[in-house]
# Entry
Amino acid sequence: MTLDFSVALKQWPLLLDGLLLTVFLTLLAAVFGTVLGIACGVIRSKGPRWARWLIGAYVELIRNTPFIIQLFFIFFGLPGLGLKMTALTAAILANVVNLGAYVSEIARSGIEATPNGQIEAAESLALDRWQIFTRVILPPALKRVWPALVGQMVIIMLGSAVCSQISAEELSYAANQIASNSFRNFETYIVVAALYLLLSIALRRLLNWVGPHFIFGR
Amino acid sequence: MYEFTLWDIARNLLLAARWTVGLSLIAFIGGGLVGGGLVVLRLTGTRTLRRLIMLYVQLFQGTPLLLQLFLVYFGLSMFGIETTALVAASICLTLYASAYLSEIWRGSVESIDRGQWEAASSLALSFGEQLRHVILPQALRAAIAPTVGFMVQVVKATALTSVIGFVEMTRAGQIITNATFQPFFIYGSVALMYFALCFPLSLYSRRLEHKLRR
Amino acid sequence: MTPSPHNDIPAAFALVDIRGLRKRFGDNEVLKGVDLQIARKEVVCIIGKSGSGKSTLLRCLNGLEPLQEGSVSVDGQPIRPDNRQALRELRQNVGMIFQGFNLFPHLTAGQNVMLAPRLVQKTSGADAERHARKLLARVGLAERFDYYPDQLSGGQQQRVAIARSLAMNPQVLLCDEITSALDPELVGEVLQVVEGLAAEGMTLIMVTHEMAFARRVSDRVIFMHQGQVHESGPPQALFDNPQTIELRRFLSLDH
# Structure
């Protein structure tokens, strides 16, 4: 038995395409999922009772079911209600909905840890509620929970591999293509796993840099 | 064509649920045993050994579980080992769980105040005795909530074994969907079945965490 | 309750006008009918035991605590806690400084000072910065513009907080035990800044435990007891010749 990685590596344009789509998918999910999650987190900690209950149900439903089932439900199940979409759209939607549920819990804990005096100081400076939330509460809250958020985004990136199962043409899909054409399954998956490992390290580095520089300062 | 009645669907999904539960238990128990060993090695081993274990953990936490399953499945056969989907899934999920559990448990051991080690060694306890009588009882308390929480992750992870053809709930759902063309209903039901398995664990984990904090 | 010579400012001249103020937390009535008028440029120190309602009174003055009965008006504008817009307009006139500083940890000293002018008064960046630098210089922290709160001592943080509330050009400054969280050696630098403000004619209402400071700086001292103004008057009269047994007892404690 010999290992031959050359077959997989020769297909680098295919791998590159897949990798770019994985990156695209992850970034889109990260941005929209975080916004959704923060909105849900706020509602869950400050909203009216019925809204809190509704968001709670969404969060628990997502956190207690496998991502692959959520993906299948959105891609195969929703067309039954007349909501047809492409594999890529379904993949993005599933990732956003999934990340949103996890972020809402993370964001809530960060927001609820805000010292009351911070809010009173902002109120006494005549800031309105939106300004207080976006300028005073949110940045330190994000800073508090940033490690957890970064971890969750890496999990989303790795989890997006499952989208190959609905033929969204991301990195794992490319891997399946190459593997089935070359009969070099093992080597191909080794190469692609290594790419994911590099991606997860790069994503972690990127977010740990982006946070202090652009999101919450220092 | 054979007509699937509601009863057929429910029966087949429930039968498949046994495999989801079974595989979860295998992965959790296997992962617990291997993970426990890894924690001890991380506490007692040489620096090189600790580095290797850290690398092992990072490999499992830094790559998709989907690919880990493919690698084990194709890897075993490549090394000439005849295997079934169940064996490959069990091995892969055991390794996967061991990596996460060893990380969780290492965290709980490290959360124990250094003073406890020092106090124990000042009583002339050996390392093993310190671990067994002083550190582990306390670490266990800290570990139990996140460990129960991780069981939820294991149950959800078993859903991915459908991609290597192991027939658990997700794969059963796919098969039934292909025969009945009712994806909304079937996948919705499968989701609710996972929820029924996972939600009590989540609640229990949260309650434990709450109790511990007080 | 003892009448005091300063307490009969005609309402028309009062900058802050408090009448029949009552405040309850559940069953616990903290303010039991407070009447108080404070003139422009007056420096008033409020003293009293903890639980006497002095901090609550101060917090009612800028709407941090909703009041149940009575009225509070600042510069002729009554406080209506149910009207957010009116409350925000009031707060532009009433600055507040807290015991715990409450600087925003993610912003530098300069950014802390500039935040409200930029967001609330829509001041341009350059103007806000110029003003902020001037204010920080005024509290003796010109060099600390780009420092974050956790890089500053407690006394410096509190001085930044003073500059921050001055940035809105308030007519009244409320100071809620602003030196109580400070190490003793840092109290002086903060009080010195406040004394400077008093000298420049800022209207100040301070809850404080610094009796020597109250005696030196204030025009009038209010002694609160069990949710009411128990005794008030010029500092000399009040400290040297307390009329009520409660104030005498309070002053004989180690202040």
Summary: The longest strand of chain C covers residues 14-25. The two ends of chain C are 23 Å apart (CA to CA). The beta strands of chain C are 14-25, 28-39, 43-47, 69-74, 77-78, 94-97, 172-176, 203-207, 220-225, 228-233. Chain C touches chain A through 28 residues (CB under 8 Å).
